[in-house]
Amino acid sequence: MSLRLTALPLLLLLHFLHSTTVTSKKVCGRPVLPAQLKVDVLQRVYEPGEQLVLSCEQGYISAGGSRKIVCIDQGVWTAPTLKCLPRPCPVPDQILNGRADFDDIVFLSNISYTCNEGYILTGTNSSTCLHNGQWGASPPTCKPVTCGLPKIPQFAKMTYDKKFTGNETEFGFGGKYECLPPLALFGNERAFCAANGSWTEPPKCKFVSCPPPEKIDNGFLTLAVIREHGYKERVKYGCNVDYVLDGPAEIECEKNGQWSRKPACRAPCSIGIKRGRVFYNNKKLWIEDVKPNRLLHAEMVVFYCQDKQKGCGYPEASQCIDGTLETPKCFEEPTWNMYNLKAKSLPSENLC
Ligand SMILES: *[C@@H]1O[C@H](CO)[C@@H](O)[C@H](O)[C@H]1NC(C)=O
Ligand SMILES: *[C@@H]1O[C@H](CO)[C@@H](O)[C@H](O)[C@H]1NC(C)=O
Ligand SMILES: *[C@@H]1O[C@H](CO)[C@@H](O)[C@H](O)[C@H]1NC(C)=O
Ligand SMILES: *[C@@H]1O[C@H](CO)[C@@H](O)[C@H](O)[C@H]1NC(C)=O
């Protein structure tokens, strides 16, 4: 009986001792993990020595390290070493008439799509790399802006770059305006469907007339009627005998109502020496044998000058410029006596 009486407090004591050791031993709570790691936590607490198996969050893939963490005595988990990297998506293709911009191509990266000027984006302008390694949206397309048909002004016609049918044109498509003769085109000859969906400004076709063509000195208008002329009409000039045409023979009535620059008739020259010999037309001639003594505008003649110290001559050329032929400064006319001896050559012709 006494044993039974003393056994109960002992059991209570033992029970007391046991429960105090349990509460003083530290347990682990829910582990704190980096965002890309996950774990299935089933219990409220874990005893020291218990393990948990880690895995990568959706969109991340394992790149080495241990999948396990262990609850250690002080109630903390061992540091996780599992490495998880964002899953890559395929390198996106560039799009026609537009651009795909992106910094990275891994889980949660974005592509931003834009179309070039004159193109409209159809589809979505962005796409995100999903957890499964696929892009969330398919690339958009860039469709050209469309314009209607260009305005054709009265008295004009348009030649398109390419044949087309229908009543719609696309960005960049163009053509060339022409005004029907005799009208002149003012403005842009080229036109195209612009990025704003309109054609560029058409030109204007206007009637242009030039005053009756002017006469020229020492020349004449050939086959021309003295009257007003229309745009692009031409008249032709000629020169009197021995006069040389300087400039284009034909002039044209221009857009500004003025004629293009008319030519001039340049006068002939005569060689202004009484005695001497010259080289003209590939021949050496005494001046009195130059018949007629007349050079046409722009023709050349060579005189012979004398180097008195050396007793020899040297050639000096001169050109007829619109009625003026300069005798070289070095040229000296021989005396009447010397000249009329008519030696085979003059001293000035013995070339140095
Ligand atoms: C991608 O776009 C989404 C939605 O606009 C945004 O929340 C996210 O931060 C972007 N991602 C990056 C990496 O910039
Ligand atoms: C993309 O489209 C959205 C609406 O669909 C718009 O708010 C946003 O500005 C666009 N982004 C770009 C870069 O054009
Ligand atoms: C183009 O032609 C179609 C039919 O051929 C017509 O329905 C449409 O309105 C026209 N568009 C323009 C801009 O004239
Ligand atoms: C459209 O753009 C073209 C070329 O830049 C310009 O010539 C035209 O005036 C514009 N039209 C409109 C309606 O803005």
UniProtKB/TrEMBL annotation:
<feature type="disulfide bond">
    <location>
        <begin position="28"/>
        <end position="71"/>
    </location>
</feature>
<feature type="domain" description="Sushi">
    <location>
        <begin position="87"/>
        <end position="144"/>
    </location>
</feature>
<feature type="domain" description="Sushi">
    <location>
        <begin position="208"/>
        <end position="267"/>
    </location>
</feature>
<comment type="function">
    <text>Binds to various kinds of negatively charged substances such as heparin, phospholipids, and dextran sulfate. May prevent activation of the intrinsic blood coagulation cascade by binding to phospholipids on the surface of damaged cells.</text>
</comment>
<dbReference type="GO" id="GO:0008201">
    <property type="term" value="F:heparin binding"/>
</dbReference>
<keyword id="KW-1015">Disulfide bond</keyword>
<dbReference type="InterPro" id="IPR000436">
    <property type="entry name" value="Sushi_SCR_CCP_dom"/>
</dbReference>
<protein>
    <recommendedName>
        <fullName>Beta-2-glycoprotein 1</fullName>
    </recommendedName>
</protein>
<dbReference type="GO" id="GO:0005576">
    <property type="term" value="C:extracellular region"/>
</dbReference>
<feature type="disulfide bond">
    <location>
        <begin position="115"/>
        <end position="142"/>
    </location>
</feature>
<feature type="domain" description="Sushi">
    <location>
        <begin position="26"/>
        <end position="86"/>
    </location>
</feature>
<dbReference type="Pfam" id="PF00084">
    <property type="entry name" value="Sushi"/>
</dbReference>
<keyword id="KW-0325">Glycoprotein</keyword>
<keyword id="KW-0358">Heparin-binding</keyword>
<keyword id="KW-0677">Repeat</keyword>
<dbReference type="InterPro" id="IPR035976">
    <property type="entry name" value="Sushi/SCR/CCP_sf"/>
</dbReference>
<feature type="disulfide bond">
    <location>
        <begin position="210"/>
        <end position="253"/>
    </location>
</feature>
<dbReference type="Pfam" id="PF09014">
    <property type="entry name" value="Sushi_2"/>
</dbReference>
<keyword id="KW-0768">Sushi</keyword>
<dbReference type="InterPro" id="IPR015104">
    <property type="entry name" value="Sushi_2"/>
</dbReference>
<feature type="domain" description="Sushi">
    <location>
        <begin position="145"/>
        <end position="207"/>
    </location>
</feature>
<keyword id="KW-0964">Secreted</keyword>
<feature type="signal peptide">
    <location>
        <begin position="1"/>
        <end position="24"/>
    </location>
</feature>
<keyword id="KW-0732">Signal</keyword>
